[in-house]
Amino acid sequence: MSNVRQISVFVDNKPHQAAGVMRIIKESGVNLRALSLADTADFGIIRLIANDTEKTVDILKAASYAVNVTEVLAISIPDTPGQLSRVLDALGQDNVNVEYMYSFLGTSDRAVSFVIRVDDNAQASEALNRCGIIQLTENDIAEM
Amino acid sequence: MEKYWNKEIECMSREDMKKLQDERLVAQVKHVYENVKYYRDLMDEKGVKPEDIRGTDDLHKLPFLSKADLREAYPYGLLAKPLSDCVRIHSTSGTTGKRVVAFYTQNDVDMWEDCCARAITAAGGTEDDIVQVAYGYGLFTGGMGLHGGSHKVGCLTLPMSSGNTERQIQFMRDLGATILCCTPSYAAYIGETLGEMGLTPDDIKLKAGIFGAEPWTEEMRRSIEKSLGIKAYDIFGLTESSGPGVAFECSEQSGMHINEDNFIPEIIDPETGEVLPEGEVGELVFTSITKEAFPLLRYRTRDLCKLSRKKCSCGRTLIKMAKPMGRSDDMMIIRGVNVFPSQIETVLIEQGYSPNYLIEVDRVNNSDTLDISVEMNPDQFSDKVKDMQKQERELAGAMKTMLGISPKVHLVSPKSITRSEGKAVRVIDRRKLHD
Ligand SMILES: [Zn+2]
Predict the structure, then answer these.
(1) Could you tell me which residues are beta bridge partners of residue B332?
(2) Which of A8, A119, A140, B6 is found 20 to 30 A from B59 (Cα to Cα)?
(3) B1-330 — its CATH code?
(4) Chain A residues inside the 8 Å CB shell of B385
(5) DSSP string of A31-77?
(6) Are B145 and B245 a contacting pair, CB within 8 Å?
């Protein structure tokens, strides 16, 4: 299984809330590999992948943030037209429901990386394998 | 085995109690008429003379006193004894309008502390107990009242006052306090802090808590009992009538016994002032029949509740008052519907949320808006936005079922709503700014 652990943090939809989370992480010396923010009128959810999941969760919890860890898939695809729809088609064929996805910077400028949150990781992973899409492990991401 | 502080009074037969009340009321009306010009004028205006009051059956003939009268008579207008006979002053926080100032003779202090001693005994307190008083000390009656009661019972008394929660817990652990006295919102906060410090109820020796000075719900009681590993008892009182101890809860936890030898309760229709029969909900009115310095007759508390003479399993015969639903002045009228903060608290605890919340009422385009900020439950946190929005919708739905109107629910971060060490401020009504 090549699932990657993603940390989510609840923040109020007020100025400086997301910045506060970033500052705490920065001060702890943890490196962030991927980051996205989803927000509503009331609150935001920061999703991130760090090079040290346990430490990041501990420091955020110590600062009274609501935190949870979910397993997601990470992929790397060539930065050429049609690649992303190939991924979505592969998942769609297997009826895997994509909750959300976001891109993050990889090491190569000829490839792009995505975090994909689905309802069934095992099935999604199989569908991606079948189409020859490269899945990244937590180690791969930590070493980026 | 139920313990009583004053068994003779607390278990007195109804006939004997009525006789005692009759005698005391007649003497009190005479004392007030002779010494308080403000009330004498009210009685004269109504055409009632002290001789017309021959017992409790004549109580309804007397004029009411309201908070407005207390403001009008501020500060000395209702004083019934020379200041040289008074030994103490307490005061309300005076958040709305002018504050109320109450005076006490030594006998008044003794009576009040005796009432608090009954409450502590009913909560299982004896001279072997260590009572941690985490009510504020000072002009507020909570601290000094329970402090005095604790002394009377002979408990070892820890006069902590409110605040510095970690130190409260440290003392609780180091000295082995067995009974905690504070506001329910502060008790909830202490329970929450205990958990945050990585401690459980097994790490402290508390067995009981006596909580009052603000309305609280049955759900909040269960939640405090769980977080501190105690049995939580309600206590009722007003600065106007001496302080906490006017009524107190026994082991049955189904309403508070009123110290009828000192305070005669009535329930009235808040609109007409008519006395309602036992069991009906209305405004609670108290007549102090033993107080010397500040003896209020037929004082309208604005608390809405009901009375019951149903036999209590604890053996006390003192009449019981139900937990007040809230003050008539806590009640908000939103889109024509009566809403009490206690109803919102009930829903929150039932749904597994923290009882820390903030109600904001406003008027937009001539229509009332109700916004409730609620601390999200970290155990139910999901990385999916739609899951969190569903929680908001479900909570709003449960609120609508309880209140009859739809609020907007906003989930906010855990611990982001200010904790209270005394009386909690839960409502911001901005409609007044527009009037
Ligand atoms: Zn009882």
Answers:
(1) B339
(2) B6
(3) 3.40.50.12780
(4) 38, 40, 45
(5) PEEEEEEEE-SSEEEEEEEES-HHHHHHHHHHTT--EEEEEEEEEEE
(6) yes
Profile chain B (435 residues) by mean pLDDT over runs of 10 residues.
Answer: 94 97 98 97 96 97 93 92 97 69 97 98 98 94 96 97 94 97 93 94 98 88 96 95 96 96 96 93 96 97 92 97 78 83 87 90 88 94 95 94 91 88 81 64
Per CB-CB distance under 8 Å, the chain B contacts of A8 are: 381-383
If asked whether residues A117 and A93 sit together in one domain, one would say: yes
Instruction: Provide the residue ranges of all domains of chain B, joining segments of one domain with +.
Output: 1-330, 332-434
pLDDT mean over A136-140:
88
> Which of A14, A45, A70 delimits the end of a domain?
A70
Interface mutation target, options A9, A10, A57, chain B, most CBs of B under 10 Å: A10
Amino acid at B260: E
Same domain for A83 and A51, yes or no, is no
What residue numbers bound the domain in which A26 lies?
A: 4-70
On whether the pTM is more than 0.80, the answer is: no
B130-133 vs B179-182, strand pairing mode = parallel
A104 and A62 housed in the same domain: no
For A55-76, what is the mean pLDDT?
94
The secondary element (H helix, E strand) that includes residue B33 is: helix B14-35
Architecture of the domain spanning B332-434: 2-Layer Sandwich (3.30)
Q: Domain with A135 in it: what CATH number?
A: 3.30.2130.10
